[in-house]
């Protein structure tokens, strides 16, 4: 099987805690080529390749977009790569090429607004904008903003980002532009520090609060040994 690079886009002053366990989970449960850090590099961690690149833009979406453009233009990265967040964890062997999504953008909008007295929020405004742009382009409108690894083709992601320069939901823009299809599933992200991790789960993501609670303790027990990307003192 062809091994793809794993790319993390990190804040300049990213903390190592969550990323450490993400790396341990990748080393144990995934076949890959190299691991890249873009922009940030937390103390105590050393990837195969580090690109110290200043993120451009006022919002986190603009900064992530500028980083993605740089990544997609980098021919040293495999033509397809796994896009990771520092809070993504692989709990079982992972070799899935087929992507995941959470269903239609319209359904996600309804769910979020139902939690806010059926009112628009800044987030659902962005979701609506994304859906509208996709519809005008005659594309599908699936929501790929799910907290799991995504296999990205560099050239196609670059095309998608150029085709939709004002839309921040780059995972959904890419997934529908590239017509990658996939399987619907619930998001795996845990937000509460009091939520238990399903022992049968294959994938996990955590908020900062959740990582400091039961989920973080689960990860410490699940991945107790340092991996090759942790710098020895």
Q: Largest sheet at a glance?
A: 5 strands, mixed
The number of helical segments is 8
What is the fold-level CATH name, i.e. the topology? Answer: Spore Coat Polysaccharide Biosynthesis Protein SpsA, Chain A
Query: Structurally, how many domains make up the residues?
Result: 1
At CATH's second level, what is the architecture? Alpha-Beta Complex
Name of the level-1 CATH class = Alpha Beta
Estimated share of beta-strand residues: 15-25%
Protein structure class: alpha/beta
Shape: globular
Order of helices and strands: EHEEHEEEHHEHHEEEHH
From the alpha carbons, calculate the radius of gyration and give it in angstroms.
Answer: 17 Å
Q: Spans of 5+ residues with little confidence (pLDDT < 50)?
A: none
Oligomeric nature of the chains: single chain
Mean pLDDT across every amino acid position: 94
Could you explain how this protein is built, in words?
With 233 residues, this protein is an alpha/beta fold. Helix content is 36%, strand content 15%. It contains eight helices and ten strands. The chain has a five-stranded mixed beta sheet with strand order 3-2-1-4-7. β1 (5-10), α1 (16-29) and β2 (35-39) form a beta-alpha-beta unit. α2 packs across α5 (154-163) and α3 packs antiparallel against α4.
């Amino acid at each position: 099987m062809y091994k793809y690079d794993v790319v993390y886009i990190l804040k300049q002053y990213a903390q190592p805690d969550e990323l450490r366990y993400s790396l341990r989970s990748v080393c144990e449960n995934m076949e890959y080529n190299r691991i890249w850090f873009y922009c940030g590099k937390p103390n105590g961690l050393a990837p195969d390749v580090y690109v110290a690149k200043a993120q451009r833009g006022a919002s986190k979406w603009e900064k992530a977009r500028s980083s993605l453009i740089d990544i997609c233009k980098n021919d040293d990265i495999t033509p397809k790569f796994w896009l990771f967040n520092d809070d993504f964890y692989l709990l079982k062997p992972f070799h899935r090429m087929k992507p995941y999504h959470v269903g239609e953008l319209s359904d996600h909008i309804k769910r979020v607004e139902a939690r806010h007295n059926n009112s628009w929020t800044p987030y659902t405004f962005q979701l609506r904008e994304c859906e509208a742009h996709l519809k005008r382009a005659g594309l599908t409108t699936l929501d790929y903003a799910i907290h799991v690894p995504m296999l990205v083709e560099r050239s196609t992601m670059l095309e998608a980002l150029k085709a939709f320069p004002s839309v921040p939901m780059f995972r959904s823009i890419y997934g529908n532009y590239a017509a990658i299809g996939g399987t619907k599933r619930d998001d795996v992200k845990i937000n509460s520090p009091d939520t238990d991790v399903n022992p049968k789960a294959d994938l996990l993501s955590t908020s900062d609060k959740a990582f400091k609670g039961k989920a973080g303790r689960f990860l410490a027990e699940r991945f107790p040994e340092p991996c090759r990307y942790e710098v020895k003192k």
